Amino acid sequence: MARVLLTSVIALAACLLAPLPSTAQRPAYRPVTAERLTRPEPGNWLSYRGTPDGWGYSQLDQINTRNVANLRPVWTLSTGVTGGHEAAPIVNDGVMFVTTPRNQVLAVDARSGDLLWRYAHELPQGLVAYHDTNRGVALWGDKVYTATLDARVVALDARTGNVAWSTSVEDNARGYYMTLAPLAADGKIMVGVSGGELGIRGFVVALDAETGREVWRTFTIPAPGEPGNDTWPGESWRTGGAPVWITGHYDPQLGLTYWGTGNPGPWIGDQRPGDNLYTNSVLALDVRTGAIRGYHQYHWNDSWDWDEVSTPILMPVRRDGRTFPALVHPGRNGYLWTLERHANAISFVDAVPYVYQDVFTSIDPETGRPTYDESKKPATGTVTPFCPSLWGGKDWPPAAYSPRTGLVYIPANNNHCGTIEGSEVEYRPGSSFTGASSQMTVRPDADHIGELQAWNMDTGERVWTREFESHNWGGVLTTAGDLVFAGGTSDRYFRAFNARTGEQLWQFRTNSGVIGVPSTFSVDGVQYIAVQSGWGVDAASMTRRIDQSRGTNTIVPQGGVIWVFALEDR
To answer: What is the pTM of this model?
Structure first.
């Protein structure tokens, strides 16, 4: 065993230390402009979800329902690290950028898989971070931007990987860290912070793309004198959480960027009575100034750790003979939310459960404010059961929309419940500030947990559902080939489905579980599908909890690999 391990280490070292292709051999690199980000060429995937509206949709259709069964891997690249690989491969004119756990950035020739350069961020000793994952880069001009676990934003030269600038946005020792892909818009690089379990005060910050200078900072918990501060008792706003750890979306017509926020701190609501704005909300921010132009809070005084950090999809919805600009959000709280976006407001349209949920007893038809079954609301000194468990109906993996089918595709988890026991907790910088312990259970007689759901938002009806025995942590990609791509299950499969019917058309078993966000691109007339495989973080934690509940022992191999597929005859 020792000899095998040593051989693997030597092989990995040889790969990482091998000479990189000369500049003359490298693909050309075209600067990324605001126009290109808003309307990217079909062959490029320039941002986390492909376009700033968050559709996760590609116009490419070379790979389609008729030929996807002929999809084959064309190259792979080991990242050299283990853990949860969650980043989307970003591609600009044949150059791919991928991030890994512990803040590596890899630049790869997307045609061949040759490594062009590698940036390894130096992390401090005593790093404070509950998750060491990273969800990708942003592109602007001739630079690549990454957010780090020690709460920095680093700008790299896209051609060489050399550091152009590095800006600290907060003190990691106080519990601030970052895992999201930055958002590039209007000459700014915007990021939010993780640390909702560490007593932070969340915020979104915008930096100048050329210099790294801070342009604006918007806190997600209002200070005294600001609207909403009265929803926090005493000084609790200072450590109230509301982290922002998933990339925002952008509406260039309204000049607004949308961000989801997470849980309050501590977890148990009776220790901070009130609505606790703007936790578990979506915020509309003026991209020029950071001013809050509107918000909607999905649930108030959260006590279930139901982060609502996933940014809603910006898409058209038609109701009652009228098409309006909507925000569509499959909530961690188990409800599918339809909101309307305006220049200076976000208004509620409706919300319906998409998984089993036993906490909400009603939703106000005008405001969208839920009423709770108080016996299902965790409290200090008690053990409280509720469904779904703290991982919710959908955690961070992004849903997607296809304008061809008009459907929204949700990577959902159903039939799981849990308990939270609340306890008193005292704030200490950089230490846990949850005041809670949790357990998870599977509902009796449940034959599955994971689901891939397709919804028609015009009618508010579910069109089809695929079920998986495993839970589902797979971000979704849709294409003009009427395909839906997703991984997310512990059996290590990456799959393609018919976007209209849900029929599974193709699957491929990778080295590990696929919790990476898939993307697609084309080079020299060939369409490729790309995704990272590498199981870890909460997907792995949920695996352990399910095994405890079922008395099973699920083994998911470790190791990060970038997988790129194309049609066999191409």
So the answer is: 0.95
